[in-house]
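Example record used in the benchmark description.
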Amino acid sequence: MDKSEDDMDTDELPTTKEPSLSTILNEIRKSNTQNQDNFKELNKSIQLIRANVTDNSNKINSLSQDIQFLQRDGHDSNDSIAQLQRDCENTERELKKIYLIVSGLIDSESESVEKLLYTVNLLITSLTGKNVPLDSVKRFGFFKHDKPRQVKIRFLNLTDRDLVWANRLNTPKSIFINEDLPYVTRRDNAILRSKSKILTREGKTSTINWSQKTITTDTQIFKIFNGELKSKSIPASQPTLQTPLFQKASSFSYIK
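Model output (C-alpha cells):
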C-alpha cells in the first residue's frame, strides 16, 4: 500500500540551509565594492567625454576664427587672383602677337607646305603690295571637304605682321584674318558678343569694352569674372560710360 504525503516521514523532507548573517553581509560588501569600481569607471568615462567635448569646442572656435579671417580677406584674395589671371592673359597675348590666323583659304587634303606658302604669299602680296617674308605657315585641325582649315602664319617681325593686320579688311569676302588670341580672351569675347545680341533683341543699346570685358547699358554694367558674366545696377545719377578699368568682383552679382 502506497504511502500518502501525510504519512511520509518528516526526515525524508528536503531541507534548505538558511545563509548565515555573516555570509549575507559579505555578499553585500562584495556587491558594494563592485558597484564602487563600476562607479569609478563611469566617472573616468564622464571625465574623458568632458575632455573631448572641451577639446572639440576649442577646435570649433579655432575654425570659426579661421573662417572669419578668410571671409575678411576673401575679397582681396579674389581680386589678387583676378589680377594674376589678367597678367597671364596679357603675357600670352603679347607672345602670340607675332602670329595671325587666316580663315577661308582654299584647302585640299593633299596640300603641301610649299603650295600653302605660295597661296598665303599671294594673299599677303595682294593686301600689302609687297613681298612679305614669313617664318612659317601651318594648317591646323582636321581636313573637311565642306570647310577649309584655318592657317596660322608666323611673321619674322611685328612690323610686317602689323602691316598685314592693318589691311585685313581688304581680303575677299570669304577670307578673314584674325589675331591669334589666348583661349581665355576668345572665350570671354564670345560671351560678350552673345550678351550683346541678347540685349539688342530686348531693344537695349549697349557698348562693349573688349579690354575691360564689360558691356554697359543705360541701367547696368555687365562684366566677365573667371568666365562668368556678372551684373551691377547703375545709379541714375552715375554716368554710364565712365567705368573703372577693373572693378571688384564683390560689387557684381552673377547672372543665372
